[in-house]
Amino acid sequence: MERSWAPTAERLALSAATTAGAHVPTAGVPAWLEEHRRSGGTVVRRIPFAELAHWSFAADTGNLRHSSGRFFTVEGLDVRRPGTQWQQPIIVQPEIGILGILAKEFDGVLHFLMQAKMEPGNPNLVQLSPTVQATRSNYTKAHGGTAVKYLEHFLDPRRESVLTDVLQSEHGAWFYRKRNRNMIVEVDGDVPDDDAFRWLTLGQIHELLRLDNVVNMDARTVLASAPSVPAGTRALSSDAGLMTWFTGERARHDVHARRMPLGEVAGWRRDAYSLGRADGRFFRVVAVSVEGAGREVAGWTQPILEPVERGVVGFAYREFGGVPHVLAHARVEGGFLDTVELAPTVQCAPSNYAPLPAGQRPPFLDALLNAAPERVRYSTVHSEEGGRFLDAESRYLVVETDEATTPTQPPPGYHWVTPGQLNWLAGHSRYVNVQARTLLAILGTVTAGR
């Protein structure tokens, strides 16, 4: 049996090069998503915490929890590092969900079964999602709703049919040690048709990744975890050297994060409608009601995190000896299981740092924001996880830089890596954060100039 990933990577590369699918034209996908949004009739409205059904603040801890003990809780987190410390609310969801995409060959080319899925936090409600996107509470029907379609393909797949399978972290600033199983599973036989699902090539999905708020976060992370054909073997740093640097970064950061009662978090205030910082920065916890959802259950209420503004997430891009590289950041986030994961060069909400002097702003932020238009290789707005975050958007960028703005020898905590090296690391758990995986999903086409 072939033990290399190469055959899978080559099949995925062929799919990425195929922009005309066997089933639907790419140009028709946004209209199909919009039709599902209109026909669904979903209404999401903000409500006071008192109107949450089955959710309440615990009398002893102040934690926001569901009466079933399932789904998730909103608790406090105390993070201490040398020279700094902070407290914040954070979502605690220890169960591991499934983010799974079915793959099948049509005319010799892999196609992927993508879903038009409603998530209450999406700015446009319906986006292109994996075949299956479900927490354990969802697929075990803790909500009392209907079954998750196509779930059986991912619960106990034949090993030979699995193209990628890895546990990946989610937003370490908003989730406490959250992981999901990212899977692509190939099928041979017939798959029942459903109007909420469409078969697309990887090339079609890459084209859709150029459009604002079309491909959701869960689809992006699954696709980024799949193996790719390396563009070459040369790099500024060897794979062994990269691993030594990254392991050193994990070892040098002293991070102590502990859960604490939400009611004791310092600097956060709760009123009837929200729980937020006194200075209005970062994010707030709010509550929403969802009606006419067209999901496993038709309606529900839930707490949800709302960022205060659109974020900026970007890779600085340079070529060294003709080889594309991006500048990765070993980033600390309080909710990570390990101390750091590889993140984009810049990942922030700019207004959070507006009060600070220039020297304390995130490194390289101004280089990306002030880049000349001809240097911007990629610029698209994507929303984050729509099930837990409300209107959480970031502008994702890949910006060509130079020695003056991003030196060959970057400051501590930063390292130049090739897209191939980043893809290699994304095939393992807790190496590449979810924001970097979004950019990785499109990086091959960006660096190729497409």
Keywords:
single chain; 450 residues; alpha+beta; Nucleoside Triphosphate Pyrophosphohydrolase; seven-stranded mixed β-sheet; 10 helices; globular; NDP-hexose 2,3-dehydratase
Protein architecture, described:
- There is one protein chain.
- This protein has a domain of 157 residues: EvaA sugar 2,3-dehydratase subunit (Nucleoside Triphosphate Pyrophosphohydrolase).
- The mean pLDDT is 93.
- Strand 16 and strand 17 form a beta hairpin.
- The protein has ten helices and 24 strands.
- It has 450 residues and is α+β, with helices and mostly antiparallel strands.
- Helices cover 20% and strands 34% of the residues.
- It starts with 5 loop residues before the first helix and ends with a helix.
- Helix 1 crosses helix 5, helix 6 packs across helix 10 and helix 9 runs antiparallel to helix 10.
Topology of this structure?
Blueprint: H1 6-17, H2 29-40, E1 43-47, E2 55-57, E3 64-66, E4 73-81, E5 84-92, E6 97-106, E7 109-118, E8 126-129, E9 132-134, H3 136-139, H4 152-155, E10 162-169, E11 179-186, E12 197-201, H5 202-208, H6 217-224, H7 239-252, E13 256-260, E14 268-270, E15 274-277, E16 283-291, E17 300-307, E18 311-320, E19 323-332, E20 340-343, E21 346-348, H8 365-369, E22 376-383, E23 393-400, E24 414-417, H9 419-426, H10 434-447
Parallel strand pairs: 6-11, 18-23
Antiparallel strand pairs: 1-16, 2-3, 4-5, 4-13, 6-7, 6-9, 7-8, 7-12, 10-11, 14-15, 15-16, 16-17, 18-19, 18-21, 19-20, 19-24, 22-23
Helix pairs in contact: 1-5, 6-10, 9-10
